């Protein structure tokens, strides 16, 4: 496609400390076909002042109650009009002013699901490389590094049963159906704050259901492999905890 429209969505609540950097990384992009949407969850700090400061460069913003980050993200999917949608966290930034232009140049398949890498600031590492049926259950594609086409994001929403890791379930289910449409771009898309809620807390519903989700979507061989890896990891953690 020539010059695809990219909808970039940021959801935020009380993010005054970091939000301006995220906004700047979007509005300073060299690519001209960006629709920027910000959804605020009734912030009580200075977040709205920051949004209003850049209102002329934001296509749409709202401040209203939501049922959590993935409910807000689903609202963003309903509002987006782009050929592709991308989520940037309020405490994350795009890697360079040209990165959206670079990614857009690679979007030759209308239904391609394009993804790259993100830099984990706390862990000081690049995440995650090319995924496969065998490893997507173990290492999710960061939503700060993936672009979903309209044919996907207008039909599929995040499962709100998962409060912290609905994006992992989303990607596993997509990969099971559209594996051939996943296109890896060896590019650094963003700098990601891996001190956020989803990185530092356990989603109990995800922990309970993920083995079954993997079996159902990726097959019994992958499911058994994943189950074994989880058991080994849990055993190692129990040994470490006993020291």
Automatic annotation (TrEMBL):
GO terms for molecular function: transferase activity. InterPro entries: Glyco_trans_2-like (IPR001173), Nucleotide-diphossugar_trans (IPR029044). SUPFAM superfamilies: Nucleotide-diphospho-sugar transferases. It comes from the Bacteria. Keywords: Transferase. Residues 7-173 form the Glycosyltransferase 2-like domain. CDD domains: GT_2_WfgS_like (cd06433). It holds the Pfam family Glycos_transf_2. This is Glycosyl transferase.
């Amino acid at each position: 496609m020539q010059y695809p429209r990219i909808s970039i969505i940021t959801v935020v609540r009380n993010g005054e400390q970091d939000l301006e950097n995220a906004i700047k990384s979007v509005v300073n992009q060299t690519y001209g076909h960006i629709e920027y949407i910000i959804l605020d969850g009734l912030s009580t700090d200075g977040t709205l002042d920051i949004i209003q400061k850049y209102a002329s460069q934001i296509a749409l913003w709202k401040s209203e109650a939501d049922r959590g980050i993935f409910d807000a993200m689903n609202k963003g999917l309903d509002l987006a009009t782009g050929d592709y949608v991308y989520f940037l966290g309020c405490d994350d930034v795009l890697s360079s002013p040209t990165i959206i232009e670079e990614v857009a140049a690679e979007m030759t398949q209308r239904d391609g699901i394009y993804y790259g890498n993100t830099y984990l600031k706390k862990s000081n590492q690049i995440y995650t490389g090319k995924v496969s049926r065998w490893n997507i259950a173990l290492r999710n594609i960061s939503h700060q590094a993936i672009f979903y086409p309209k044919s996907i994001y207008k039909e599929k929403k995040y499962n709100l049963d998962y409060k912290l890791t609905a994006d992992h379930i989303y990607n596993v289910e997509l990969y099971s159906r559209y594996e051939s449409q996943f296109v890896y771009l060896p590019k650094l898309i963003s700098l990601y704050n891996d001190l956020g809620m989803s990185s530092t807390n356990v989603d109990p519903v995800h922990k309970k259901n993920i083995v079954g989700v993997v079996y159902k979507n990726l097959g019994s061989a992958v499911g058994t492999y994943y189950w074994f890896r989880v058991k080994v990891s849990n055993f190692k953690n129990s040994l470490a905890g006993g020291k």
